[in-house]
Amino acid sequence: MKISRCILVVILILFAININAQPDSLYFKEDKKPDVIYGWSTKKDVGFYLNQVSFTNWNAGGANSISAIISGKAVARYKQEKLFWNSSLVLRYGLNKQEAEPIFKTEDVIEVVSNFGIEKNPQSNWFYSARFSFNTQFANGFSSPNSEQPISRFLAPGYVFLGIGMEYGRHIERLSFYGSPFTLKTTFVLDETLSNQGAFGVDPAIFDLEGNIIREGKKTRQELGILFTGQFEDEVFENMNLNTRVRLYTDYLNSFGNIDFDWEVNLDMKVNKYVQATFGSHLRYDNDIKVEVERNEMTNEEVVVEGARMQWKQLLGVGVVVDLDTIFNKENKAL
Questions:
Q1: Is the pTM of this model over 0.85?
Q2: Domain 5-15+42-327 has CATH 2.40.230
């Protein structure tokens, strides 16, 4: 996951040249469309997804299981001729129960994203932009259903990105590219046990020879680096909506050139007004998140292994999604 520093420097130089040069391809060739909605537009929905597998005298074997995910999303967008302000809140929580196994968490997301942009030129696709994002989770996370020691908690970790840069895209709400040469990333680990372990990249505690803490682990870690993001959301086929987002980040001071990678894809397929099938994929690599314990399949012993790993989560489910603006008879402006 590493690229050379030279390549990153070249990317930054080309990015700066593109902003200043503004070739004709970056200008609008026609007036703004008259159907653009100015002012505020909002959208709110909640969803419930259920997956169930049951076996009775099934000769191939299998374990009965049921899993459920509840989700909520709220979007608020403000648009004027020369500026925009888009914000979103995403909440998801899921549980799984498999026969004799205890209930296990499968999904846990709290995410807030807000970006503000001012038009650089009336005929340009470029915007001066500031972007803020916050991510954490609701409940404790465990490595397995039978584990008693949490490996994550609320605000352990929590991530805040705050930066300024340039955003390219005529319709920011559907397709945009954002680059920031100055983005502050703050990692929170507000749990004493995890911070003393040095989880999620914070400085661990210092112990004496008897195991007593000389200095407690730090609960925050700050980085300043380069952030690139790309986002696309639109109806690709009838009743089929695609939403994908990619984020690349590298820190100037710590391992410059080592890129943290985050790519999320969600495909929602609408069956009718309320029923929806969804497929999701989330690929992530963060050099600060280490896999510390693995189990040797030959000896069934735990082995300590240091190093970051590629993380992948996927989701496939069918559920009910309700537009709250419609339910409460509020004006529902198209986004």
A1: no
A2: yes
